[in-house]
Amino acid sequence: MTAVRQTLLLAQWQFRRQSTFLPLLVVVQVFIAVATVVGYGLLVGDPPPEVALYLATGAPTITLITVGLVMTPQLLAQSKTEGSLDWMRTLPVPRGLFLASDLLVWTVLALPGMVLGVLVGAARFDIELSIAPWLVPATLLVSMTAAAVGYALASVLPPPLASLVTQMLVFVVLLFSPVSYPAERMPTWLQQVHEWAPIEPMAQLVRAGLAQDAFTISGRSLLVLVVWCLVATGAAAMALRRRA
Question: What is the reported pTM?
Answer without folding.
Answer: 0.85
